[in-house]
Amino acid sequence: MKKINNIKSKCPICKKYFELLQNIYKRRIERSKSGKIFCSRKCSAQNANQYQIDKWRLAHPPKKCLQCNKETKNPKFCSSSCAALYNNPYHHFKNDVRTKFVKCKGCKSIFKVKIRSSAERNFCKDCKRINWLKNKRKCKYCGEPLCPKPKICHLNRHFTILIKYFGFKKSAIGGLKIYKEYKRIRNKLIKEYTKNRLTLTDLCKKYKHPNIGNLYHTLKILGIIFRPAVSNRFKTGWHITWYKKKIFYRSSYELNYAKELDNQKIPYEVESLTIPYWDIKLQKERTAHPDFYLLNSNTIVEIKSIRTYDEQNMRDRFKAFKKFGYGCRLIFGCDLIDVTELFIKRSFNPKDFS
User: Fold this and answer.
1) Do β-strands 299-304 and 327-332 pair in parallel, antiparallel, or remain unpaired?
2) Lowest mean pLDDT: which of 129-133, 146-150, 221-225?
3) Dihedral pair phi/psi, residue 129, rounded to 5°
4) What are the extents of the domains in the chain?
5) Would you say residue 207 has pLDDT above 80?
6) Which residues contact 288 (CB under 8 A, 6 or more apart)?
7) How far apart are CA 143 and CA 170, in angstroms?
8) What is the CATH topology of the domain spanning 237-353?
9) pLDDT on residue 89
10) Which of 40, 60, 97, 211 lies at a C-alpha separation of 20 to 30 Å from 255?
């Protein structure tokens, strides 16, 4: 039998080489209109699609805008502005640079305008501004046609809150005094929040404001920079004792008790002692830092609330305090009630004092 040679060919679409039998190769060349042979039906279909696209583009060349000469799908113009410029017979006057001198109707001064400007608009810049200010409404809050400080006037919806709770004078609205009054109230709140270190709850109580969220929003709009958030949920800070020593308190209860001791002129220290004790619950040794240590009476004072009170832990601490020769006192709640005797007798219920 005769051997049939394979013919190697290159696909014009995917550029891959493929082999065909000699008789098949001849048959495909005879049938093909373009004289091209493809490796697969996919490449053949892709070539046919491209041929149809090129044929359509030749039959429908891209149109250009009559005004700006850009390519467009529309019949004549790429946009309505180009159509208006082209169809307006006087559009060439737009680029007319010629000028003329005219007399101002208001101040009678002479100034330069474009040659095609109408006689009705012969007003200089100063006269135009004066006429504009006359026709313009005056601001309800500063009383001026052009607000000197528009940012303050735009805060008008917050003036009612400032009047109701923070002593903003209502009579200042309608004149330039409103800016001084706004500055006074803002400085007062900055002093209360930053220098006096009042919290939002303290400000609500002091100024009888009903809503903390609303107060926060008001301070934010006044541009007051807030203190960084503290993870502790209790009130903390520094306090100077009656004998001029700086101490750190960890709750408002501790601050109130420190003020009581200051009034009575009793020397004390805060978290100055470190006493080891055995924790029965955790079954390990821990260290305690008592809240207050009264120097004259050699007494340790622990101040607790219903949140921080743990009976078993307190008993473990008291046992260690007595072992080291200290007297012990337990003060509970915001009223600072001494419940030491009830605690020792095991008849103390924290819910009765909450």
Assistant:
1) parallel
2) 129-133
3) -65, -40
4) 6-59, 150-221, 237-353
5) yes
6) 273, 274, 275, 276, 277, 317, 320, 321
7) 14
8) Endonuclease; Chain A (3.40.960)
9) 57
10) 211
